[in-house]
Every structure is written in C-alpha cells, then in structure tokens.
C-alpha cells in the first residue's frame, strides 16, 4: 500500500513541476516540450535515480497520449485552415516523410555504419514533425505568420505521424523477418494504401458517430467531454484492430467533429485542451525517464552530425521538392523547412526497434533522443527570430479580443458571447452593435445594466450577446482594436492605404513602375492578384519599382479590399538564392533563353551587305 502512495507522490510532483515549468517557458522563450523532456531526464536513472525501463509500457502510454493529442489537433483545426493548405500539407505529410527518411538514410549509413534497411528505419523514426511542438509554438507562442504558411505547418504536423508510424513498423518487420530490399515494393505500397484508406474511412465514420451521439444523447454537460474523448479512443482502437491507421483515424474524426455543429462544443474544446496538456506532460516525462543519458556519449558525435544533417539538408531538401508545384515564396519554403521540430513521436517510434528485437535496437533509441534534443534546442529556440529575419511576421488582422463563449441548454445553433470592449475598438468609438447580435447585458464598473440603457459603450465594458454560431468573426472586428496604420503596423503596411478598386495605371503615373502588357486596364487588386499567381493573402507583398504594395485587407472570397503602400524597398524579405518554385524556375529558363538569343543574334554592324546593285 505504501508503494501506491510513493508512486502517486512522485508522479504528482513530476507533473506539477512540468506544469510550473511552463511559466519559465513563457518568460524566457524556452521550448516548453524540451523542459518536459529535461525534467524526465533529471528524474531518471542518471539523475535522481528513478528507474524506469519498461519499454512496452512507455510505448503504450505514449501511443494513447499521442492519440489524444491528434484528436485535439484535428478538433481544433478549422476546415477553412485545412482547405487553405490541404494539397501542400498532405504532400509534405506523405511524400515529404518518405523523402526525408530516404535522404537522412544516406547520412545514417555512413555516420553509424548501418545497413540500408536500418538506415531507412532510423530515417523513418525521425522523419515526422511533432504536432505538439508545432502547435504550441504557432498557436500559443505568439508567432503570427501568413495564413497559408501557418495552415500548412499545422496540417502537416497533425497528419504526418501516420506515415512515419507505418514506415517504422513495416521496416522493423522487414528487418526482423530477414527480408531484403527486394521486399520494399508492391507489397509495402498495398499495405500502405490499405492502412491509410481504412484510417480515413474509419475516421470519417467515427466523426459522424461522435457528432450524432453527442447531439442525440442528453448527457450531463460534465460527462459530454469525457464521452467524446472515450469515443475518439474507440475510433483509434477499432481502426487499429481492423488493420488501419488508428492515428490517422483519430485525427480525421477530430477534424470532422470539430467542424460540425456539435452540442457542448466549447466545453469539449476546453476539456480537450487540458487533457492534451496532461497527455503531453505524461508522454515527455515517461520518455525522459526511459532514457539513460550515460549511454549517449558512445554515439554522441554521430548523432549530432545526423541531427545537423536532418535540420540543414534532409528536411529542407524534402520540403523544397514537395513544394515545387505550389508557388510558395522562397522565404516561406525556407521557414517551412526550418519549422521541422522533432519531438515525442520520434522518441516513441524509437522504442519500436527495441520492442521488435532489432539488432542494436538501443542505438536507434539513443540516436533519436539526441536528435530530438538538438532539434528542440536549435529550431525550437530560433523559430521566432528566423520568422522575423525572413520577413514573415505579419500584424494580426485585428487586435486582441477578450471573449468568453457560454453555451446554454437548447441552443445548438446559438451561443452566448461575452466581449470586453477594447480601447480604440469600433464599438468604443461609437459604432453600434448590429441587432442580429441581440446584445442583452452590459457590465460596467461591476454594475449590470440592460444594453438599451447603457448608452455608448466604454473601454473595459463587458457586453453579453446572444448570436448565431456563424457570426462571431464579424463581431470580433467590432470589439477588437483593428490594425491601424501606426506603430508597428505602419512599418509593415507603409505610410498610407489606397482602395484596391482604383485603376492600376494610376500607380504608374504616381510612382513610375512600368506595367506589363495587359495590365493597363486592371485594378490594383487585379494587378496584385495576377502577380501573386492568382491568389492573394493578407500581408502579401508585390514590388512595384520604388514601392511595395501590401495586401492590407481581404474579404472572405479572397478579393483584395485595401492596399498599403510602403516607400521603403529595403523592408522587403531577404533574397534567398535557393528554394525556387516551378514558376520561378520556368521564368529564369525563359529569361536565360531570351538572353542567349539576344547574344547570338547578329548586330547592325554584322548584317551581311546586300548583293543587289544600288539604284
């Protein structure tokens, strides 16, 4: 009995210390997941002396925790975000993982003297990015980049784990069965299609089941989030038992359920947030306890070399190849390649060779652990500075919104929102709240009053509104401080704005940049959209001679509304001599061909004299 208390005491203290370390992370910018992992190492065999060597238990705990993280990742990803970057993100999550593993395997073969299959196995273990690390840095870390880049990173990190898991398990089976490279072919491809196909189908069916049961069963609101996460684990386990990818299924189920009208959505989201934090803490602590740092020096130098090769060669090369068709700017591709953080998934997969009795299986675990540590140290600590150096940090669409969502019984399609009136927001300046928002109550200086008698809203008032669940985005603009052209925004968007519907020919008259043939009859919005490859996003830049045109505001249909003009060309993003996309490569080939023809064409002095007699 005393052992139960002792284990509970130690586990609780570790979780509390890990949770407390989040304060250090927010204050000093340290990668939070690195702190979780470090606490596990310090408490382990070579630290405080806690011995934990049960690899099977660690893999089981880690798998369940990863399933919780993936369900929450899908549940918190809007379908708009998914659609915005679905093609490049899915390409990175599938082909990108394979390319990364293959390129990395070349270095692993020489650094650690592994066989071809073993090199591919280590490459597969470290090929996927960590959803928890990427989501934390992008959603909580305050790094605000362009929507398409952010969406690509979030969807990729949530969707690439199933591919890495499939490759790792398949390669372990091939190695332990004594099969050679000839077995990597049709059989593996069929197995992959089966697992992914069953995973997607089971995830969709599971998402439909979750939404239907939650909306039909009148569960207590305290039980609803628990019932939801239990259903997600049911989807995960049943899919795995049927031969599909349970990790892909649970992500798809979360994506479907999170984007449907589901009862107690806000409660489920809050519960998932807390449970995901707990799952990450437990997963990193357990994996940290499982490691034995005293074994690291034996392979420290090769592992460091592999980590740097992964960061600076394998990941960038794989990302560049995958994104060639998608017209990402070179700075965006560089950032996508840098945000390839490795985390708990790689360490979790490194347990598989140990469980599968692969020869020298501990080498895979120790090497992966060192690679993850280096990735979190080098990449996790520098993502913000790299984004700023590449010119990818953009001002928020609107200022901060202090909003609380309250769900009431019987309001499946409506919700009660509580907004704090931000100083300088439109409502603070006198703009009225629309009637369809149904404002009902105002809290001012601790006193409540009906909205009709509150008069003009003041800064720091709290307003209660009962509205349809589709409209909060419209209300956010009213209650938030909009991005006005002063301070940091003026540095980004320029000194003033123009209406995007104005004729583009006016830019040529005012600033002198020459328009291309066919652009004279365009509006500014049409000109920018055309030069951006047919799609414009918030904060996109288009150089126009001595000025930069910046997309200042864009509607829900993707049409540019207002444009900022910057008179400081030096503010443009750095010119990176790499990561060219197909459109840029084609342009350079055409330009080189035209220059070559111009050099080989005979000049006026070289023209042959006419043989005809002069008249």
Automatic annotation (TrEMBL):
Cross-referenced InterPro entries: Cation/H_exchanger_TM, Na+/solute_symporter_sf, Transptr-assoc_dom
Chief location: membrane
Location of this chain's protein in the cell: Cell membrane
GO cellular component, one term: plasma membrane
UniProt keywords, alphabetically: Antiport, Cell membrane, Ion transport, Membrane, Transmembrane, Transmembrane helix, Transport
GO biological process, one term: proton transmembrane transport
Residue segments, region Disordered: 593-615
Annotated ranges, domain Transporter-associated: 489-569
Transmembrane segments: 6-26, 33-52, 58-82, 89-111, 117-138, 192-214, 226-253, 274-293, 299-323, 335-356, 362-383
GO molecular function: antiporter activity
Record keyword Disulfide bond present: no
Membrane topology: Multi-pass membrane protein
Biased composition (Low complexity): 601-615
Protein name: Potassium/proton antiporter
Record organism: Tianweitania sediminis
């Amino acid at each position: 009995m005393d052992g139960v208390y002792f284990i509970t005491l130690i586990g609780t203290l570790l979780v509390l210390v890990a949770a407390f370390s989040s304060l250090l992370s927010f204050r000093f910018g340290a990668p939070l997941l690195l702190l979780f992992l470090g606490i596990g190492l310090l408490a382990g065999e070579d630290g405080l002396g806690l011995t934990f060597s049960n690899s099977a238990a660690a893999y089981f705990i880690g798998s369940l925790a990863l399933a919780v993280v993936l369900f929450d990742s899908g549940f918190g990803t809007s379908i708009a975000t998914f659609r915005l970057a679905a093609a490049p993100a899915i390409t990175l999550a599938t082909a990108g993982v394979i390319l990364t593993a293959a390129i990395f395997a070349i270095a692993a073969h020489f650094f650690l003297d592994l066989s071809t299959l073993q090199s591919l196995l280590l490459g597969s273990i470290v090929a996927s990015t960590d959803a928890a690390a990427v989501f934390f840095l992008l959603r909580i870390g305050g790094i605000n980049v362009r929507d398409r880049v952010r969406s690509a990173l979030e969807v990729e990190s949530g969707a690439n784990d199933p591919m890495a898991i499939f490759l790792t398990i398949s390669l372990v089976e091939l190695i332990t069965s004594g099969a050679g490279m000839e077995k990597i072919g049709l059989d593996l491809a069929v197995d992959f299609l089966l697992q992914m196909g069953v995973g997607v189908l089971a995830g969709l069916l599971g998402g439909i089941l979750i939404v239907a049961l939650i909306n039909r069963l009148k569960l207590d609101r305290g039980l609803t989030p628990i019932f939801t996460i239990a259903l997600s684990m049911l989807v995960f386990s049943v899919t795995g038992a049927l031969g599909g990818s349970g990790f892909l299924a649970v992500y798809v189920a979360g994506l479907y359920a999170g984007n449907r009208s589901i009862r107690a959505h806000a409660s489920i989201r809050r519960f998932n947030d807390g449970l995901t934090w707990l799952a990450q803490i437990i997963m990193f602590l357990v994996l940290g306890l499982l490691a034995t740092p005293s074994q690291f020096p034996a392979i420290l130098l090769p592992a460091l070399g592999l980590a740097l090769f992964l960061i600076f060669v394998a990941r960038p090369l794989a990302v560049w190849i995958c994104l060639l068709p998608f017209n990402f700017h070179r700075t965006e591709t560089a950032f996508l390649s840098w945000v390839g953080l490795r985390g708990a998934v790689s360490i979790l997969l490194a347990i598989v060779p140990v469980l599968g009795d692969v020869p020298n299986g501990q080498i895979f675990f120790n090497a992966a652990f060192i690679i993850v540590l280096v990735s979190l140290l080098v990449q996790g600590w520098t993502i913000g500075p790299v984004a700023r150096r590449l010119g990818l940090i953009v001002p928020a669409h609107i200022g901060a919104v202090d909003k609380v969502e309250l769900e009431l019984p019987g309001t499946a399609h409506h919700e009660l929102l509580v907004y704090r009136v931000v100083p300088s927001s439109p409502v603070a300046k006198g703009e009225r709240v629309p009637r369809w928002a149904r404002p009902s109550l105002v809290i001012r200086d601790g006193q409540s009053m009906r909205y009709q008698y509150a008069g003009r809203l003041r800064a720091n008032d709290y307003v209660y509104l009962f509205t349809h669940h589709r409209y909060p985005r419209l209300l956010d603009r009213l209650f938030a401080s909009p991005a006005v052209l002063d301070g940091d925004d003026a540095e980004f968007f320029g000194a003033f704005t123009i209406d995007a519907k104005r004729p583009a020919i006016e830019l040529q008259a005012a600033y002198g940049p020459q328009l291309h043939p066919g652009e004279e009859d365009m509006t500014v919005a049409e000109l920018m959209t055309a030069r951006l490859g047919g799609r414009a996003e918030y904060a996109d830049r288009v150089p126009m001679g001595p000025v930069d045109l910046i997309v200042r505001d864009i509607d829900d249909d993707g049409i540019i509304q207002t444009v900022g003009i910057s008179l400081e060309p030096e503010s443009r993003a750095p010119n990176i001599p790499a990561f060219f996309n197909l459109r840029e490569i084609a342009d350079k080939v055409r330009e080189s061909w035209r220059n070559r023809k111009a050099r080989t064409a005979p000049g006026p002095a070289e023209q042959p004299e006419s043989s005809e007699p002069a008249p």
